[in-house]
Amino acid sequence: MAAKTKSGKQSASAKRSVKSWPADGAWVSADELVEGIVRLLRGAYELKRKPGPVPQYVGYNIGASELATQVGINEDFQANMLEYHRERNRDVLDVAAYKLLCLGIEQGRRLHAHEVALRTRSSECLESELQQFAVLVALLSNESSSEHERRAAMQRLKVLALAHSRPGRGLGPLKAGWELHLPKECDLCDRPAIWRHPDGGFRCDKCPTPKGGSS
Q1: C-alpha distances in angstroms, 109 versus 72, 78, 97, 171?
Q2: Are residues 38 and 103 in the same domain?
Q3: Which of 212, 173, 176, 209 has the alpha carbon at shortest distance from 194?
Q4: What distance in Å separates the CA atoms of residue 78 and residue 85, rounded to the nearest whole number?
Q5: Do 82 and 151 have their domain in common?
Q6: Residue 157 belongs to what domain range?
Q7: Dihedral of CA 70/73/77/82: which sign?
């Protein structure tokens, strides 16, 4: 953490020591990122290299993208690679800090992919629910719709409204193989059917759907 005064604010010297990321979104070289962390560690600790080989690393390896251009973590601490780094004025701490940066890059890549997947799923859920809403509104607007169809449509609209009255919740996409259907009655009760399966079967929003979860 940066040094803070008694008021809890960062001191002016601490603010000046921290660099700002490029305003144009440009990336920063790995060497520059690692340099500051290594300098901090060397200033905070009296580090002394133990004799002998570097202990075996037990943990995740760097990502596939990084492995395409460099060796893995344990390989980078073999005698021949340490000699390679030594010729370039890098010691074990420099190499370890760089590998830690690579792990952070892979973790960030995976977090980003997860976030994209969640956004895609949310978009698909919204599109599905909008389609359902359009069908229901069209049915209610049609003067030739029967009273049974209108009651079923109103019931489904209430289900949609209830789902969205809870923060962060919605109905989501329809279960695989199921589509919105209104004119029939449920096979298990006398309520209007909301779901129909191509293999046969009609269900209301209360009764369980066969072999595939509930509505």
Answers
A1: 18, 28, 19, 29
A2: yes
A3: 209
A4: 11
A5: no
A6: 142-203
A7: positive
Highest mean pLDDT among 43-52, 53-62, 125-134, 194-203: 53-62
Q: Measured between alpha carbons, how far is residue 201 from residues 132, 186, 192, 194 in Å?
A: 19, 8, 13, 11
Residue 7 placed within a domain: no
Indicate the average pLDDT of the chain. 78
State whether 105 and 150 are in the same domain. Answer: no
C-alpha 135: how far from its chain's center?
32
94 and 166 part of one domain = no
DSSP β-bridge partners for residue 185: 192
Domains identified in the chain, total number: 2
The residue ranking higher by pLDDT, 194 or 45, is: 45
pLDDT in tens, 190-199: 776 777 777 7
